[in-house]
Specification:
233 residues; mainly alpha; 12 helices
Length: 233
């Protein structure tokens, strides 16, 4: 059984490596499962035994990339605190709000794929959400508990991780309205729009007004915070 499992794992890695090359060359739309199978030197039927759809294959590649993402690694190195909670929310807002404006449009494409996945079999969304929850869930929960313990937040009824997903979905849907060339929802322009979103989310997860005012404009950028933690370790 161990030999068969190892063979299956190696085959899976072989498919993923071939798919990375195809997606890099042709993008998501231009890549087919047939081209990936050909690049991996296997039949399309064998590919489907490991990955039922192209979206599931792409999601697995993105999930691996999440684990190695420098920003996520820096987030996970931060000590649980109110400051870390604010950094986490701020980074999430910035990431989603600026995705439609990125020249390569990769993040915008992923937002579209998430929506498309949830209108179909949901496989792409499930893989990504599972990975994001595993990576970010623990630091979010621990930082929220720290904020509650220090009096910076009140406990909100329900599962703490649900608060993270509520925040994620709010920003995701706002970003979705900005994907068309003419936004589907024209928010009044404001230079600190991202700050307004952060305030709304932080209030929703239980932070009080005094803590928001104290932290939102004073916490350092993620990279600076990670360096400071490393130096004090």
């Amino acid at each position: 059984m161990s030999t068969l499992r190892l063979t299956g794992d190696l085959r899976r890695e072989q498919i993923l490596e071939a798919a990375k090359g195809c997606f890099a060359l042709y993008g998501f739309a231009g890549t087919t499962t047939r081209s990936v199978a050909r690049a991996a030197g296997i039949s399309e039927g064998l590919l489907f035994k490991h990955f039922p759809t192209k979206a599931a294959l792409y999601a697995e590649i993105l999930a691996e990339a999440c684990e190695a993402d420098p920003e996520l690694l820096r987030l996970r190195e931060l000590k649980p605190s109110t400051e870390t909670l604010v950094i986490l929310i701020r980074e999430m807002v910035v990431h989603f709000m600026r995705a439609p404006d990125e020249p390569d449009q990769e993040d915008a494409q992923r937002i579209r794929l998430l929506i498309s996945s949830q209108l179909n079999d949901g496989e792409f969304a499930r893989v990504l959400y599972d990975k994001i929850g595993d990576l970010i869930g623990p630091i979010f929960n621990a930082s929220l508990e720290s904020a509650i313990a220090t009096g910076d937040a009140e406990r909100v009824e329900g599962e703490p991780l649900n608060l993270f997903w509520f925040a994620h979905q709010i920003v995701h849907m706002i970003a979705l309205t900005r994907l068309p060339a003419t936004p589907s929802l024209d928010y009044p322009s404001a230079p600190d729009f991202e700050r307004y979103i952060c305030q709304f989310i932080l209030r929703g997860i239980g932070m009080n007004s005094q803590a928001i005012a104290s932290y939102l404009d004073t916490v350092p950028p993620l990279s600076d915070a990670a360096v400071r933690i490393a130096e004090s370790a």
